[in-house]
Records
---
Amino acid sequence: MNEVKERGGPIDPIAETVSEARDATNDEIKSLPHVIDRVPPAAWAAALIGAWERFSYYCIITIWQNYMQNKRGFHAVPGALGLGQSTATAISNGFFVFLFLTPTFFAIVSDTRLGRYRTLLSGLWFTNIASLSSIPATFLEREYDFWTAYLMASGSLLLAIVMLLIFRPKLVKIVPHENNLPKAFRVLGVAARYGFKLDHAKQSYQTHHHGTDVPWSDSFVDELKRGLIACRVIFSFAFFYLAITQMFNNLISQAGQMNLRRVPNDMIQAMSGVACVVFGPIIQALYNFLAKRRLSFGPMARITVAFLMCGGGMAYASGLQKLIYSTGPCYDAPRDCPASDGGRLPNDVNVWIQLPVYVALAIAEIFGLVTASEYAYSKAPKDMRSIVQAMVQLSACIGALMGMAISPAARDPYLVIVYGTVAGVMGLCSILFWWRFHKYDKIDQALNNSRDEESTSDGR
């Protein structure tokens, strides 16, 4: 006799099994029809909450460089503290260190206590739409002072909190959860005895060679191997983040040295968000085009392109800085010579010439950061995905620390060398990255297949 639900009616065991959430296997992806599902309201709520938080974030960091670097009422570029470009850059990078380091702690809490279904992620497209908050923030800063922009940031963050409280019942999903973090450390401890050969920590090896019964399966060690590969790839992004964070400090200062044509100097970086919104769907269409024709463009190739684009953007910034230094009235001391009329006259270079830098960095973000996040998630051991994702932020933290290290040189007349050095390092990184990691594009299918075999063996 069929089981009966509380409200009556038989339970369909097949329907009950199908309704359980799990990842599709490769065979299912190949054989079953691809149907676009309806995006649930909870997903939209999560994206909007993340977007409002990013709205506040970009309101704050976009105007920081002016706030810290320039004196109040000194010249056409807004300011308050008058600390100078070098000190302002060091402070902003210090904030990024704190910002990028914090998720590591919360990732451990998420994976060991909460479970990944209770961790909210906002999409890149929503994030970059929210980043356009820098446009009204910069005009508020210039026309009505900094407090108005910070008030707007506070209001949007309050809205995110209210939405989070309203949608909490739909966003929080309690699921059975296993804490695999201590198990992973124990595997690494066993592997350390054999020169960190993880295969020697497998249950089969330990049982066969030592008669030891370890509390983990061979498949768990394989998952851990994939996660460590992902971490190695992710930590290659440190120099990438060093270049990306230039958008929020030195490149804003560079714009302030040019002819602004009634545009706030810290508004130009908002074009990076615009470029992400525009080029995101175009690049996705490119991926689909290549996939339909079975042309390989794997994660390592995309990241290499990202590094090259990032290096190209920094090379352009170096050339642009050279152009600024070659143009009057103040040449290599912009807004800091008698001919500048007390800092009111910039060097006569149109600020919109800076636009290609932000377009290049935006395309690099799409190819690089999205791929790194996806790669980290797909290769991370089950129930440790937040921790591996946090490694992305940790690599950004290292990049910010390097930004602090070079900040003493971030002042006139040395900025050509600063940008040129970052460009050269990114060019070298792209070559070394491709040389070291390109093989993983070839074996990526085999790594994914091992997860499918585990799903089959577990009966999922």
---
Amino acid sequence: MTLIATLEHADADLTACLARVMAAVLKPGDVVALEGAVGAGKTHFARAFIRARQGDLAEDVPSPTFTLVQTYDDPMGTEIWHADLYRLTHPDELAELGLDEAMREAVVLIEWPDHGGPLPDPLTLGLEPIPDFPDLRQITLAGSEPRWGGMARLPAIARLLHRAGWGEARVIPLAGDASARRYFRLVDGVRSAVLMDAAPGTTGEYVAMTQWLRTRDFHAPEILAADQVEGLLLLEDLGDDLVARVLAAEPQLAPRIYDRMTDLLVDLHRHAPPDFVLRLDGPELARQVGLFAELYPAAAGAPGKGLDVARTIEALHAELAADVTPVLGLRDFHAENLIWRDEAPLGVLDFQDAVAVHPAYDLVSGLQDARRDVDPAIEEAQIARYIAATGVDADRFRAAYALLGAQRGLRIMGIFTRLAQRDGKPRYLAFMPRVWAAIRRDLAHPALAPLAAALDGIPEPSPDVIERIARG
């Protein structure tokens, strides 16, 4: 058993906050061994954990000292078992209580675990009083590193929430994305916020871009509290009305929504990009698209193909786009990263990888969306809308749009291949046919004939090819 993390000087509120955070991440089959002397706070921790899992359906959580076991259901259909083994006379009684089976199918919290004999790979949470400070505890988390190493983040999260005045909030996981970041919604009465949990020391770009955007009246979420050393940000909650969801529920709003997206880019491009963002010029675009040639052709059964793609894109960028002053590109500008707020400005998310790039880059990102079909008439209308609003040369802009669309699409094909084969995330392969179709449309532009030639012989992502990639 390895010491994973320590939470120092935890009072009752911080202890309960840690329980609420842990309640957001444990799953069926997880066993928590609660260790500590009488009065150390084991039942206090378990009570906060169970009530957090139950949410609005929370019920009384009595100590199981005399019943030995209490069971609860949460709204997701998971059973939670709370056991107190202090009065257990023999480990064999675990089977009589049903705990041996519960430890395979439920979330199980066990006080006095040593009375029950060895447990199946538990997370051990120890509560130890601090001398001369009777109301404070040192809390330790220990367990096998492969299974429980991810719990090392929880004390830092609890400290931030407690310090920021969100210690009593319920913590609810939100759907993740293709990155290593994870998100949680905090609900405390009528107020809510979002917690971003990123890798330690990686939030500097997000904070800098947030400040840049907000000082120019673009609605990035306000940062409510931060622990940048740990990679934690507490953010304004812009709600659940992702543009993607609104489009799915009310497709008739698509022309209005895409008008707003284009107008946001027109406004954004009136500001010179900050000097701290990456310059996404021809050489960098070529470097990034190298991921496609490195991974997709071989995975699709055509090793050695596509080797000229990167240098062809660099050459085409020099010919078609290099003379245009770069603007700020949010880079992941699409319906999953924008919040619909009716007449209020669109909320923007996931902009920490912003770049200085050709003005067509984000327009392509929004209109050639890997996750959903965009009506070709809407795509054409938005290109024309941007050209009219900015006065750019229409023919050169359309050629650059096609080039950047092809570059983005090819890079995405490489990313989806890597997500499937290296990271075990094959669900993104389902988007490949849509991305490839957009690439083929872009390649139809006469200026991209050299790139079409460089892609000759590379198979499309047919069902057989996608299955081959998924098998690795």
